[in-house]
């Protein structure tokens, strides 16, 4: 077994990042023990800024904020490249400054991927984070700021090709029934829909390009068609993602994790897991952050990248028991701290998962990495009670009104892509 299969990256931001990271490591350690695995957590040595921490440190220093943002972006990009080169396939990242993130996402051609289900109508949302307004560069002048953005044929085709492959992975034997793009393409003088048509002809698929408001209307009027792939410009998808989660059964953003996949050849397939909620700097250190999204991220990482099959199902079962017991943080109407919710979750895990031992008490606490950064099937040496439990902060509030739902009815079957999914 290659050791890199059981190495997971960890990148931590300001705000509640440290507390969220503690929850992630503790839950990942619990799954590692249940399955008798040893997981190395490779933690970035830098703590990355949130927007709030940048403004606190430099309330009027635009130049300093730009410099620190670029330094953070350069460092995080190198961290991802280093981990990918070492064979690591995934990182969990807490919330950091958006401009920092999008500089990296542009450079490494990132997409955000989420599978949704609306009463049996399955949908795959692929957010194009590699181009467009969010990935722009700022040019500051005396009384204005100009943001320059870019779209390209190569990136558009790369995002569409990934979406098609991912759909066949998601629905093996069926594939996608509709491939829909939601972009403000009328602003681009006809070039984006031309690129989409080129891709469609080359791969023998039908690609429909719509203005975002048309997609909204179709979603409201028809609801999602089964096996729709929605490839969306981030200008629309960033706002609509939380709405889609809420309307189509994936829960509130405070409870949801998602993944970003990098498509640049140097790091292709490297996956970054994150919570959907933000850095919640206002609740830093108050032990009130909703840990459910982080718990789900840890379970997904354990199952997909740390040899712990069934971790996601086990996590959902334990979370159901926690809910039944009325345990939750204040944002969900509860009265419990983050620490209490995490402890209840760990206690609710079935002892001894596949490959684990019956004597494993998941709620024992420890989950902390050793000095060597190991999360293993063995308890840390010393008294588990002596391992400090995290003090955790809050979850971000849901942003934006609650508008619409997913895409239009199918427009005919979408053929299998010529190349197999990687």
UniProtKB/TrEMBL annotation:
Residues 7-345 form the Isopropylmalate dehydrogenase-like domain. Residues 384-399 have a biased composition (Low complexity). Residues 400-422 have a biased composition (Pro residues). Pfam families: Iso_dh (PF00180). Keywords: Manganese, Metal-binding, NAD, Oxidoreductase. SUPFAM superfamilies: Isocitrate/Isopropylmalate dehydrogenase-like. This is Isocitrate/isopropylmalate dehydrogenase. It comes from Actinacidiphila guanduensis.
């Amino acid at each position: 077994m290659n050791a890199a299969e059981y190495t997971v990256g960890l990148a931590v931001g300001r705000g509640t990042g440290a507390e969220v990271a503690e929850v992630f490591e503790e839950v990942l350690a619990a799954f590692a023990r249940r399955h008798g695995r040893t997981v190395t957590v490779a933690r970035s040595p830098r703590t990355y800024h949130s927007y709030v921490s940048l403004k606190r440190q430099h309330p009027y220093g635009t130049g300093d904020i730009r410099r620190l943002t670029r330094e953070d972006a350069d460092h995080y990009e190198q961290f991802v490249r280093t981990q990918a080169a070492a064979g690591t396939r995934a990182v969990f990242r807490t919330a950091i400054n958006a401009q920092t993130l999008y500089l990296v996402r542009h450079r490494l051609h990132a997409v955000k991927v989420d599978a949704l289900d609306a009463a049996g109508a399955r949908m795959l949302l692929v957010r194009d984070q590699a181009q467009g307004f969010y990935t722009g560069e700022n040019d500051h002048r005396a009384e204005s700021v100009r943001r320059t953005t870019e779209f390209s044929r190569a990136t558009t085709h790369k995002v569409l090709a990934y979406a098609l492959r991912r759909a066949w992975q998601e629905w093996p034997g069926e594939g996608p029934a509709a491939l829909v793009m939601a972009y403000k393409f009328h602003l681009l003088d006809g070039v984006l829909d031309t690129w989409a048509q080129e891709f469609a002809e080359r791969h023998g698929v039908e690609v429909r390009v719509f203005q975002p408001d048309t997609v909204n209307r179709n979603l409201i009027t028809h609801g999602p068609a089964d096996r729709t792939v929605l490839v969306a410009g981030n200008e629309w998808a960033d706002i609509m993602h939380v709405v889609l989660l809420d309307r189509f059964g994936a829960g509130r953003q405070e409870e949801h994790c998602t993944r970003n996949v990098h498509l640049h050849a140097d790091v292709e397939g490297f996956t970054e897991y994150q919570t959907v909620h933000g850095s919640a700097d206002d609740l830093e250190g108050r032990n009130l952050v909703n840990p459910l999204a982080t718990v789900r991220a840890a379970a997904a990482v354990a199952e997909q990248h740390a040899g712990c099959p069934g971790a996601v199902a086990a996590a959902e079962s334990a979370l159901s028991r926690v809910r039944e017991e009325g345990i939750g943080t204040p944002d969900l109407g509860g009265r419990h701290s983050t620490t209490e919710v995490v402890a209840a979750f760990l206690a609710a895990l079935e002892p001894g998962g596949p490959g684990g031992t019956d004597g494993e008490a998941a709620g024992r606490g420890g989950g902390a990495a050793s000095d060597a950064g190991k999360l293993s099937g063995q308890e840390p040496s010393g008294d588990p009670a002596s391992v400090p439990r995290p003090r955790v902060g809050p979850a971000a509030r849901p942003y934006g009104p609650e508008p619409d739902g997913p895409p239009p009815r199918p427009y005919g079957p979408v053929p299998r892509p010529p190349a197999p999914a990687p």
